[in-house]
Amino acid sequence: MYFKEQRYEKAKASTLAATHTVQLPETGILDSLSLYFRVTNAASMSGVGPTNIHHYITKIEVIGDTDKSLFSLTGEEAIAKAYRKMGALPPFMQNEYQGKSQDLLIPILFGRKYKDGKYALDLSQWDKIELKVTNTETTSLITAGSLSMETRMCTIEDSVEAHPKFLKQWEYEAEKPAADASYLRPKLPSKGLLRSLMIQLDPDLTALTAAMTNTPTGDTFNWKLWFKDRALTIYDHRVKDLMRDEHRRLGVGHSSLKPYPSTTKYCDYHWAYVQAVAIANLMDTADTTQASTEDSSDRFQKLGYAAAVTMLQAHVQGIGLFHTFEIPFYLPDDEEANYLNLEQYKPVEIEWYAVNDDHTHRIVLEKPIGQGPASFE
Questions:
Q1: To the nearest whole percent, how much of the chain has pLDDT over 70?
Q2: Would you say 195 and 342 are in contact if contact means Cβ atoms under 8 Å apart?
Q3: Is the preceding peptide bond at 186 cis, omega within 30 degrees of 0?
Q4: Alpha-carbon span 131 to 118, nearest angstrom
Q5: Which residue numbers in the chain have pLDDT < 50?
Q6: Do the bridges between strand 148-157 and strand 2-13 make them parallel or antiparallel, or are there none, so unpaired?
Q7: Are 148 and 12 in contact (CB under 8 A)?
Q8: Which residues neighbour 125 within 8 Å (Cβ) at sequence distance 6 or greater?
Q9: What's this model's pTM, rounded to 2 decimal places?
Q10: 247 Cβ partners below 8 Å, 6+ apart?
Q11: H or E segment to which residue 240 belongs
Q12: Which domains does the chain have, with CATH numbers?
C-alpha cells in the first residue's frame, strides 16, 4: 500500500457568490482532498471586515449519487475539524490590507487523520461524486476575477484492505435562540456510532465586524449534554471550561495574521478565548508609538493604536478555534466499538443557555458509515 498525491484540478477561477463544482473520479480510494483558495483584496476593503476567506466559504459539500451528502461543512467548520484531526492549523495567510493577497488551505479528511489507512471514501461505490464549494464573496471585498480554487487529492493505492467505511462529517443542525436568556434543546440522531461531536457558537457580525454583544465564553452562558432522556448528565459547563478542557488534548493553538490598523474596526483573531497577542511592525515609519490590542480575551478585537502608514503582523495563541469545541467519543481510537452507540444512550440531548440570542448554535457530527447508497444513513 502507498499513498498517491496529485493536483487533480489546477487553480481555477471561481465565480463570486456562486458554487464551484468539481466532478471527482469514478474509481479510487480517497483518503483526503485539499482545497487551496487564493484572492486579491479589493482596493476599498481595508478595515471593512469581515474580510477573510473563511468567512465567505459558506458550504463545502461532497455529494454522492446526486443527493447523498458525504461531507457538508462551512469553511470555518471544515478548518476546525481539520485542526483537531491534524493537531495544527492548516496553513493560511489572513491579510486585511487593500490590494494584497490572501490564501487558505482547507483539508477534507475522510479518516481519523491525514493518511489514515483505515477509513477512506471508496469512489467506485457511488454513481457520481461531486465536490461543491459555495462562496458569498463580493467585489467590495476582493478584486473581480481573483478568487481561485485548486483541488488536490490523496488516494490509497494497492491496498490489501477493503476500506468498508469512511467518516461522514456534516452540520446536523444550525439554530439560533428565539430571544435573549433562552434555551435551545436539540436532540441528536438515535442510530449509528458517533465518533465526535463538535459545537460552534457562531456570533453575528456586522459589516464592521463590531464587537459581539456578549461573548459565549462569558460566565453566564452554559452548555449541557444529556444521555437517556436526561437520566445521565455528561457535561454541564460554561463554554470556556469546555474549551479549556480540550486544551489538555490539543494544547494551546497558534495562528498568525496581518490585521488592518484601525482603532475602530474589529479584526478576527481566530480563537474564542485569546490568551496572548504579539504584534510587530512590517514596515518603517517615523511614528514610534506602539500598537496594542484591547485588554480582552475575545476573538474579535481592535487595535489600541496604529499609525496610518504602519503595516502590522500579529501572532496569536488561544483556545476554541472559530468559537468551536469538540467532544471525542473514542479512547483509544483504534476500535470502532469505542465510539458512542447512539441507540444505546438515546435520546442524546443538548441544552444551550444563551444569555444573548445573537449566536448560532451549530452541531457538527462525525460518524463511520458504509460505502455506497445502500449503506448510507
A1: 94
A2: no
A3: no
A4: 22
A5: none
A6: antiparallel
A7: yes
A8: 371, 372
A9: 0.94
A10: 319
A11: helix 239-250
A12: 2-375 (2.60.120.730)
